[in-house]
Amino acid sequence: MYIKKKFPLTGMLKWTRRDIYRFLIIGTVPVFLFKGLGFYWLHLPWLPIGVVGTAVAFIVSFKNNASYDRLWEARKIYGGIVNGSRSFTLMLNDFVSNDHAKNPLTDAELFKLRKEMVMRHVAWMTSLRHALRQHKPWEISKMDKSDQEYLSQIEIQEWKYSLSEELEGYVSKSEMEEILSKTNKQGACLNLQSRHIKKLKDDGLIEDFRHMEMQSMMTEFFTLQGKVERIKNFPYPRQFATLNYYFVWIFIFLLPLGMMHEFEKIGLEVVDAIHEHMKIHTSPVHAVVEFVGTYFIWVTIPFSVIVSWIFHTMERIGENTENPFEGNSNDVPITTMSRGIEIDIREMIGDDPKHIPKPIETQFDIQF
Questions:
Q1: Distance CA 301, CA 253 (A)
Q2: How confident is the model over 204-263, as pLDDT tens digits?
Q3: pTM for this one?
Q4: Residue 348's closest CA among 173, 189, 167, 121?
Q5: Please, is 48 exposed, middle or buried when counting C-beta atoms within 10 Å of its C-beta (0-12, 13-18, 19+)?
Q6: What DSSP line would sit under 6-55, residue for residue?
Q7: Angle (nearest 5°) at CA 162 between 161 and 165
Q8: Are the beta carbons of 348 and 114 closer than 8 angstroms?
């Protein structure tokens, strides 16, 4: 997610430059055929093209709204993970005690127990973000050439390191083997945590009410996990996404066919006005204005490129927003947020600052 207030225009133009080249070709060919080769029949009335453009604008708007809703929902869910993680750590600090213990523990042993559960919680977040970074067939970041250029310059932690490497030091060897043996590895982490909470109850380190409260947090984490998995595993409906893509390109191809006839009429009107109102037809001003009017149809090219760029870029923005976990610059920065949560909860239990990792650094003013 970008930290800068505004997305730089140069970055946007670089991201869409291949599309701009296509728009230049699409805009130039019909004008050249019309004006250069005399294909004067090669034009369409503007009214039906305007109707198509209006329909496409509504469709693009609908898709962008739906894509933003998916992004904002994903951000709210991760906000719930932030709050739930802090609440769970408070419970570990206040609930886990010797009040009802069968074999009382020392303060150092209680700290070690709390840290073990906090580290297992970090392992859950690590497993979850690795699952969310896995590529799905409908995600475009690894297929689009512009996105590939961008991804080659950055470092996505979940793609650089394996899950087993990142879990090292957070769970025991036996727990790691159990986690890695499961299909849903993040669910396995919560299952281990739930078993540990039950053991705390059996040992008298928490009583029944506290046990129920802590188990309710496990249920909450499973709920939040299920919500982000739903967004990850269920794409924006392909029938809407595909038709939207086709409609935008149909409009882009039709656009210069309607524009060039309109600009041709404007140019002819300018020439007629000059002939009618200027008495000296050999003046330099007359020659310049007549030249501009005669070739005014070529203004179709930059205008069609601009309009095509606007429509197509809005469609691409919606397409890149609909999957908020695939690693693009405008996705939910789950790696940065997970590290922030880890720092918070380890500080809350009084862990040694030397052992707490540093925040994730931004890359090109972007959080990941």
A1: 12
A2: 889 889 999 999 999 999 999 999 999 999 888 877 778 888 899 999 999 998 888 887
A3: 0.87
A4: 121
A5: exposed
A6: S--HHHHHHHTHHHHHHHHHHHHHHHIIIIIS--TT----HHHHHHHHHH
A7: 85
A8: no
